[in-house]
Amino acid sequence: xxxxxxxxxxxxxxxxxxxxxxxTAEVQNAADRALTxxxxxxxxxxxxxxxxxxxxxxxLFRAELAESEVTSLRKDVAELVREIQAAENTDVPVFIVxxxxxxxxxxxxxxxxxxxxxxxxxxxxPAGQWQGWKPFVGHGSETGWTIRRxxxxxxxxxxxxxxxxxxxxxxxxxxxx
Length: 177
Prior knowledge:
Blueprint: H1 7-88, E1 91-99, E2 102-107, H2 110-118, E3 145-153, H3 155-160
Antiparallel strand pairs: 1-2, 1-3
Coiled coil: 63-90
Keywords: Coiled coil
């Protein structure tokens, strides 16, 4: 069967074809814009995810570092507690400087005690007059200077314990006691 196509019908088909092409181009442009928006949003989300992973890794590292430091500090504190307990149960030498039978000063080292006596502003002890340790006899040396070594147990407990009217302080604890 042969069909005869009129010019008007042919023009109508061409117009429909052109409209379809135009509509296809519009749809293609809209699809391209939608794809561009989607890819842009995906890029942004991917970047946010990477940044979140990076931040999480840094936070985890800082947390692990802090945990390691806490463990180390706990070990240090435990060691210090052991050292303090050992010091509280150890006899500690203390050097008492006497001048004419009265307490002049108290020192942690022998050299500091000698220096204190030898540099006294009112009546210094002669330098180098110190000999070996001997029992305390009589009223001290002829210069009036004597250094006594005594041992104190639990010195830290005595220093940091509650006050018991030492040096005129009220009993029951001082400012830091």
